[in-house]
Amino acid sequence: MKITRIFSDINGDSHFEDIEIPLINQGEIGFLSDDISVKKLQLRKVSAEYNYDFHCAPQKQYIVLLDGGVEIETSLGEIRQFQTGEILLVEDISGKGHKTKNLEKKERTSIFIHL
């Protein structure tokens, strides 16, 4: 399963990295990853006008986009768009951070899974 990781390098610049989480065939129940230990789960809804300037993640976390996409810009100016159903691994808890804004002018909900 493809996940996009956002992380900071030694200079504090944020980057994207595409990683693959291996899934193992478990027969009738489908394909499963190995267990991933987590601390908390948090639900979030943002306004239609959401446009958050440069910030660092408050903790390492997965973000699952439930309804609505986002555009994320790294500190080096690389921009990617992510759609409903995609999963991000956000690890830039220090450094210059990243920008985030809604792709559409509508409320957006997501799940934060703290690591």
Topology:
Elements: E1 2-8, E2 14-20, E3 24-25, E4 31-32, E5 40-46, E6 51-55, E7 61-67, E8 70-74, E9 79-82, E10 87-90, E11 98-102, E12 108-114
Parallel strand pairs: 1-10
Antiparallel strand pairs: 1-2, 3-4, 5-12, 6-11, 7-10, 7-12, 8-9, 8-11
At CATH level 3, the topology is Jelly Rolls
| Rg, Cα atoms, Å | 15 Å
The rough form would be described as globular
| Proportion of helical residues | under 10%
Question: What summary fits the major beta sheet?
Answer: 6 strands, mixed
Keywords, separated by commas or semicolons:
mainly beta, 115 residues, 12 strands, 6-stranded mixed β-sheet, globular, 4-stranded antiparallel β-sheet, Jelly Rolls
Structure in words:
It is a single chain. The strands form three sheets. Strands 2-1-10-7-12-5 form a six-stranded mixed β-sheet, with no helix packed on it. The protein has a four-stranded antiparallel β-sheet with strand order 6-11-8-9, with no helix packed on it. The mean pLDDT is 97. With 115 residues, the chain is an all-beta fold. It contains no helices and twelve strands. It starts with a strand and ends with a strand.
Structure described in brief:
This protein is an all-beta fold and 115 residues long. The protein contains no helices and 12 strands.
